[in-house]
Design brief:
19 strands, 8 helices, alpha+beta, 5-stranded mixed beta sheet, elongated, about 20% helix, about 300 residues
Amino acid sequence: MFHGMMTIYKEAGYTSSDVVARLRGILHMRKIGHTGTLDPDAEGVLPVCLGIGTKLCELIADRDKEYVAVMRLGTVTDTQDMSGEVLAQISDEEVRRLVTEEALSDAVSSFRGVIKQVPPMYSAVKVNGKRLYELARQGKTVERKEREVTIHELEIQEVVLPLVTMRVRCSKGTYIRTLCQDIGEKLGTGAAMEHLLRTRVGQFDLDHAITLDEAEAIMKSDTPERIMSYISPVDSFFSDAPAALVKDEALRYLRNGNAVKRRYTDLPVLAHEGPVRMYDRNGKFYALYSYDPRKDELRGVKMFLTNET
């Protein structure tokens, strides 16, 4: 069994669950989880977690994300992207008449920072125990509460009206489809998302991504061990945290997730509370702990110990 994280390049046509299902067959293991849904028509970075690494799924999902989105002005659909039914449309000529460079720049600028979004009906958000997309497919529309999201960066990369290409860096829970539609409303033209490429989720980016076909080819080759070069170890997710080597006499506490006094480690005195990676003298990663300077001890946050040697 593999343990760690992989960056899959999700191709159009796959759901996030499809990726997991196929990867289980490729790697011959069941314990695989994805880190949040990516629209079937979207492409790009989808981190997946393997084995004990599945404990990281929610933590990875909370990280900021980055996208390159193509917005089509002048078209409004029921799904907020071009896969849906067209609800309203104006001509490309009318878009070019209405949208000046200044108007576009002002509209885009107004969506930087903390904004409010209403989740689209075609989304995985649950209302009263039902996924919104399930209700939408039944022709139902329900009231959704606004949510605060943060657009850290939003820049226009290319304008060939009615298409506008944008780079977006945003917080968890941001719907780029909704962002496109809202910008279109601001401009008075309406808009829908033409294409979406996710380029980064936290530390996971396109440079380290592998397609499912590539993973399958490696596993079927004479050197399937090469797949390990695409699997990041669990502790690398916490690479910013200091590491502590736990002495043999205190390993029983660590294995049980109990508090460990700092004197039983090689960790220097820290000035403030913070996460610490916990290892034995052989370099085996056990857990993420947190240092308590008041008691000069480390306390368990999340265990990653496996039964494998």
